[in-house]
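ok so for the tutorial part 2 we go from a plain amino acid sequence to predicted structure tokens. step 1 is just haveing the sequence, like this:
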Amino acid sequence: MQRLFVGCFAATILGLLSFPASAEVTRLEIASKTSYGTFKPGEYVLWKGKLHGELSPTEAIPDIGKARRNANGKVEYASDIVLLMPAAPTKGNGALLVDVPNRGRVYGVALYNSPRDEPFESGTLAQGTGFLEDRGFALAEVSWELGKGATLPSFVDEAGKTQYVEGAGFAIMRDAALFFAHAQADAAGTPNPLKGAIKRTLASGKSQSGRFLKTFLLNGFNNGPGRRVFDGMHIFVSGSGLLPILRSSPGPASSGNAAPSFDDPDFRGVNDGPYTIGEILAKTPKGKAGPPKIVMISSTTDFLSLRASMGRTGADGTAEQPLPENVRMYDIAGASHAVLLKSDCKLPRERLDWSPVSRATLLALDHWVSGNANPPPSRLMPLEPATGDPDVLAAPRTANGAIIQRPKRDADGNAMGGVRLPDVAVPLGTHAAQQDPKSFGCSLAGAFLPFAATKQAREDAKDSRPSLAERYVNRDDYVNRVRIAARALQAEGFLLADDAAVIIAAAAATRAVK
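step 2 — the prediction. this is what the tokens look like for a chain of 514 residues:
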């Protein structure tokens, strides 16, 4: 199979791509319409369907010119879509949030609506907290991935095998976002259900789909004809990686399905650079409307298992590269990359709920894009070299000068600095330790190592960390410290008042501290 990596093809793409060439959404099909619930703007509805479109065979996408063409000489595609929007779209807040599915699973609801005591996994459309709806966002899920809801252009190669043009997934996302944000109707005359209701467009992506957004940006797909596609990007736990789908493959799985791991540290195409957002933006073709505003979120386990430190230093040494003015970066101390409700991990799973930071920073990004206010300054965890540390994924062999780093830790083993939720600022244990085994899933989920209840229990276990009884006078003392931490984080812009109240109430109900 041909192995064409992002880093190898980027020069060609960057030299050619400036705006879509004769791209068009030809048909919107809605298969189902259901009521989703009633929120502050009124009723919300959930629509599911399919978006059909066509691309010019001259687009700067590998092998697009080889793909089958229709009678108009264009290359066709189709994408499963989900729309979650006010029944009266103009009652929303004017923001369209386009969520990039992760391996075919929707993620927007899990990122922003997840409740504290029942963390949502990807794939859910449950209401949860109703945050997105109460705040008036319209949410669009657009399938882009081979074998996961997208029908990609294809061609038959010289060996007689069908090959799929995976890079078309970027064009699908671009065209769908432009259609829902700006079009009156499709080419057949079917109205855009969001017409006239959208003033700004944001993109959201986590992990694989966060790497999708960085690669989308790097290769010029955010430059629409005379306008940006996405005015803002909310990129979660993407490490230092890109997405290797600017290539063709025989399928059935996407080329973007895998990533480096402790079992396969030299998997190619993800950590081949560029690594930092500054490097990416420097190589991004300049559009007429300028670059998007970007908020990037990293977790503690990203530094242990996804080489996230290279996203700050690049491929050489430990010096931090400066962040561009249009970027804010936040490290969430003690957070894990993923929530695994069922797994074979041997240590207790990390359950820190960091969805409050997702919510607060989405609003900050939206206000930034709409021109109302700057978001909080970047807040990062201090790092230290992790050379030889078995709990940290080593540098790829292709980056000879790279020094992988991990967050510095306090005496309890908790990461220092960063955005510190009250659960970490006033801890009941060590958050986001490396898991056992270091399988791909477990290493991203992390472990929570609780403190002993009493001094005697601590000494019996030979645990050097002070026990809960040694830390907190009683439950009131513990709750008061949580309250102080929550109010401070709220004042800094990383916690909303509603979430602060939930966190304080949870502390008051805990049975861990007597």
